[in-house]
TrEMBL record:
<dbReference type="InterPro" id="IPR032675">
    <property type="entry name" value="LRR_dom_sf"/>
</dbReference>
<feature type="transmembrane region" description="Helical">
    <location>
        <begin position="23"/>
        <end position="44"/>
    </location>
</feature>
<keyword id="KW-0812">Transmembrane</keyword>
<keyword id="KW-0472">Membrane</keyword>
<keyword id="KW-1133">Transmembrane helix</keyword>
<protein>
    <recommendedName>
        <fullName>Leucine-rich repeat domain-containing protein</fullName>
    </recommendedName>
</protein>
Length: 284
């Protein structure tokens, strides 16, 4: 009786092909998912850029219209961008020299022409990448213009710096801005309105705050965010009663309390409680 070797059972030919097909489909789905995520992210960035562009244009238009109504009005807005290059251009005077010609824009600042880099023009990526870096508002004494300005700023997602000088902005308006926009540095100096509470500031990410020469009071110190690194309250209404609120600011490196109704003894005690912070003080 002949013993014939038994043949090994053959594996299905389609098993390896099925494995490769499954992995190919997974890779394809991964690529499609990644493409969708990148497209959504790009669309969102483009939308943000469009909002920043519109806000910048509207702010400049609002102040230009006000200046056109009253040639002696001294208010202005200055919007700076993250990627735009600037170069000086000659000051253009309106009228004749014999009639007292004056600059068409504010005389105390350089006249510049802002433009995006060439590579952004070629690639068409300016809206996706360009953002407002800072906004400066000076001497806006029109309540209607101020309301419209605040509404425009609230549309932004974030800016590095907002500076307001000699503008009758209210604590409520400041609170609205800080509730809607992430801002690292806020300067609101020479504000005539009372600043007794600014609730929108509590959960903000402010690192630098300058409220010098304002009516910022003790009650408003409870709204100071823990993220503060530098705080300027020179010539404000804060007293020794607010010192406990300063002690909780563990990241604070600089505190200016010059010319405030605080006592020298209280300041010395505060310095002992805040060895991590440099406190500037002069008697009122």
């Amino acid at each position: 009786m002949n013993d014939t070797p038994k043949s090994e059972p053959t594996k299905p030919a389609f098993s390896e092909q099925s494995f490769r097909l499954r992995w190919s489909l997974r890779v394809l789905l991964g690529v499609i998912t990644l493409a969708c995520v990148l497209f959504a992210w790009g669309s969102y960035q483009y939308h943000l850029g469009k909002v920043h562009q519109d806000v910048g244009q509207r702010l400049e238009s609002l102040f230009e219209a006000k200046q056109a109504e009253d040639e002696y009005w001294t208010g202005y807005v200055d919007v700076k961008w993250t990627l735009r290059k600037t170069k000086p251009i000659p000051v253009v005077l309106s009228g004749h020299a014999s009639q007292g010609a004056r600059p068409t824009r504010r005389p105390d600042a350089p006249i510049v022409l802002a433009d995006v880099p060439n590579w952004m023009k070629w690639s068409g990526s300016s809206l996706a990448l360009e953002r407002i870096r800072s906004i400066l508002i000076v001497s806006s004494d029109s309540a209607e213009l101020l309301d419209e300005t605040v509404e425009q700023i609230k549309r932004l997602d974030q800016i590095e710096s907002l500076e307001i000088q000699s503008v009758p902005i209210t604590a409520a308006q400041l609170s609205q801005i800080l509730s809607h926009v992430e801002i690292k540095s806020l300067q609101a100096r020479w504000i005539p309105e009372s600043l007794e509470t600014i609730p929108g500031m509590r959960n903000s990410s402010l690192e630098r705050l300058n409220l010098s020469h304002t009516r910022f009071s003790d009650s408003a110190t409870a709204d100071l965010p823990a993220t503060l690194i530098d705080l300027n309250l020179e010539r404000t209404a804060v007293t020794d009663a607010a010192f406990d609120q300063f002690v909780r600011l563990k990241k604070l490196k600089g505190l200016n309390l010059k010319r405030t109704p605080t006592s020298q003894a209280g300041i010395e005690a505060l310095r002992a409680k805040m060895p991590w912070c440099t406190i500037e003080w002069e008697a009122l």
